[in-house]
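Dear colleague,

As promised, here are the two records you asked about, laid out in our usual form so they can be pasted straight into your sheet.

NAME FIELD: protein one
SEQUENCE, THEN STRUCTURE:
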Amino acid sequence: MKRTRIIDAPKFVGKQVKIAGWVNIRRDHGKLIFIDLRDATGIIQTVILPNHDEAYEAAKGLRSEYIIEMEGIVKKRPGESKNEKMSTGDVEIEADVIKVISKPEVESPVDISEENLNIHLSTLLDYRSLTLRNEKIKAIFRVYGDVLKSFGDIMRDSGFQEIKTPKIVNAATEGGANFFKIKYFDRDAYLAQSPQFYKQAGVGIFERVFEIGSVFRAEPHYTTRHVNEYIGMDAEMGFIDNFSDVMDALESVIWHMMKSVENNCKQDLLRYGAEVPKKKAIPRIKLSEALEILKKEYGKEVENEDIDPESERLICQWAKEKHGSDFVFLTHYPGHSRPFYTMPSADGKYTETFDLIFRGIEIATGGQRIHNYEQLVASMKKFGLKPETFKDYLDIFRWGMPPHGGWGLGSERIVQQLLGLKSIKEAVLFPRDVKRLNP
C-alpha cells in the first residue's frame, strides 16, 4: 500500500490507508491508546483498540519520537469538536497495523510535544535538530520559506534577473574591519559582507538583478537582533531618476511579501498571535527630522546624527501613532555613516540613502550609488581607501554605468518582527553568532 500524507487523510474517509511519521505523543485512556502521529504535513490522532491485538501490544511500547508506520481506517472524529491545531483535526485513524521503523537511542532532553517550549535560548539552540521538530517552531520556518519565495516571485515578476554571487572575495566590500578573513590556498581572502559589487556589475549586464544568499559580518554583537551569518535579499536596479525610485520598488516588494504570508501562513501566524501589517503608504522622513521628533516627543537625544536601537523603536512608535504604520523609511543619512560608493546629496553632507524600520528594528538599508568613475575614485580616497585595491570593481565604471541603486533586506529580521520572536536566532535554522559555531 502506498503511503498517504497526513494532510491528505480526509480524502480517504472510510478507506484503509498507510501513514508514517513520528510519535508526537501517546495518551492512554482506559483501554484505549491514542497516538498523535506527526509528519511533515501535520499531526493526526490515531486510536488503537484492544481488539487489534498485535497493534495494541505494539502501541503499548511506543514513546515520543518513535518513527512508525501505521495502517488503519480513516474515520470522522466523534462529536463536533474539531481540533484546529491538527491539519486533519476532523478525522482520525483507527489503526490495526503498527510497525516500528526507528526509535530514539537516548532519552529526549526536551518534550517537543508541548505547544510552547518554555526553555532557555541556549537549550533551544544546543538541541536544535530536536527542538526544530516542535510544531510551533516549525511554523517559524514555514513563514520564513514564504518570505523567501514571495520575495523571489515579486522580483522576477518585476523584471529582475536572479544572480548568485561569490561568497569568497579578495577585498572587503564595505571597507572597515567587520569581515571574516580566511586562507585561500596561498593567499588571504574574505567572506563576503555583501553582494554589493557584484550586484552593481549585474546592473551593467541585466539592468535589474536580485539575489537571495548568505552574508557574513564579523561583528562581535551580543544582541537579540544580530547574527554573524544571515540570508540577505538584495536587489539593484538601473536607470533610476533618484533614490525614491528604489524606495518605491522596495515598498511594493514589502507589501507583496506581507500579503503572501497572510494568505499562505494563516495557521502559523495564529500560533504566535501574529498580525500582518495592513497595506498603506510607508511614511518617509529625513533622519534629521526623526532626531528632532525623538527629542521633542520622547526626550531622546543621540550623538553623531546616528540612530540607536531604542531610537528605532521610538520612531516606529511615533509612525504607528501618527501614521498608523508599522513601517517607516528614514532617509538622508550623513556621509560618515555610509559606505564609499553611496551617492552624496546635493549639500555634500548627507546621502541619498535610507533605512527601512519595521516594528522597531531596521530590516533594510539602501539608496542610490555613485555611477561616475571619477566621482567614485574620489570617494574612495576620501574614505582612506586605495583605488588600486579595487581595480576589478572600478572596471565596472570605466566601461560606463547608468544611475542605479538598490537595497539589502534582512530575511530573518522580517520573520522575527512578524512573529514577535524575542531573538533573531530563533528565526535562523542553525544560527552562528560570536560564541556559536555548532550544531
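NAME FIELD: protein two
SEQUENCE, THEN STRUCTURE:
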Amino acid sequence: MKIAVIGAGAIGGLIAGYLKLKGIDVLLVAHPESAKIINSQGLKISGVRGDFNIKIDALTHLNLKPDLVILATKTQDLNAALKDNLNYMRDIAVLTTQNGIRAEEVVAQYILRENIISSIVMFGATYLNPAEVVHNFEGSWIMGKAFTDNDDLVVGLSKVLSNIFPTLISEDIKAMKYTKIFVNANNCIPAILGKSMQEVFSDIEISKISIAIWKEGLEIINKAKIKLASLPDFPLERLTKLTSLPIPEAAKIFSAIMVNLSKEPLYGSILQSIKRGRASEIDYLNGEFVRIAKENNLKAPLNESLVNMVHAVEKNNCFFSKAELLEVTRGWVN
C-alpha cells in the first residue's frame, strides 16, 4: 500500500515518520518551507519511543495517485488541501484525522462518501519546528466509515496502521467523535494563557474552569439529544462522574490527570497553531458547543467567552493573564 500523508504538523509528521520506520511506502505533503527542510535534513521525531531522524520524501503537492490519503491538516485547512491535491485523490480511500465533527462533511464535497473513513487520534504529539515533532504520549487510533457501514477496506487499513499504533474499528465513530470534543475542549486554556498544559492545569483554580467547560458542554449535548460513546482511556463514566462532583473536588482529580500526561511540555493543538502564526481549530472544539446550543435554542456562555478569548489571542498575538481569565469565567465557575 502506498500512503500519502497530507499535513506535516504534529500528527501528520508523527504518522508519516513511524510508517516510514516500519518500511511502509509513504510520502509526506507539506508546506514548501517544511518540505525543503525534511528533504535536506530528514524528519526528526523524539519522545516516548526515543529519537529518530527519518529520511522521507516530502512534496508540496501530490504528483502521483496513492492507495490511501491520510488528511492530517486542521479542519480549517481541509478545503485548500483537497483542492490542491484532488487530481490524485479521486476514487481512492481517504482517512480523516481532524478533531471535531465537521471534517467528513468538508471532505464529502470532493470525495465519494463511500471512500471516506473517519478516525480519532488518541496519541499525542507536539510540533516544535518544521521537520521536528515530539511524541508526547501513546494512544490508540480509532477508525470507521463516516457515511456507510464498515467493510473490508476499513479492516485492511486498520491492519496496516496497526504497525504504528494500536487500532480499533468503531461501529459508531460519530458518537465517539462527539466524546473526543470533550477531550480536546480544554486545549483552549493553555492557548489563552500561552503556557503548557502541565503548567496551566497544575493550578487548581484554572482546573475548575475545565470542569465548568465540561459541565456546560455536557448539558448542551444532553439537551440536544446527541449520542456519546466511550473512548479508550476516556470512558463516559469519567466525564459524567467528574461533572457530577463539586467543582473544587473534580478540579483536583482533573489536575492530577493533566499534569501527568507527558514528561515533555504539552501545549495542545490550539496553542500549537497560534505559535505557528496560524488560525486555530477553536471553532471546531468549544465552538461546536456554541453552535449546537444556538441550533437548539440553548446558550453556551462560558464556551462562547473562551472561543472569543482564543480569537482575541489569534488577532492580537497577546496572551491573557490568569487574573483576566478568572475574571471572565468567574460567573460560571463559582
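A couple of things worth noting about protein two: The chain has a mean pLDDT of 96. The radius of gyration is 19 Å.

Best,
R.
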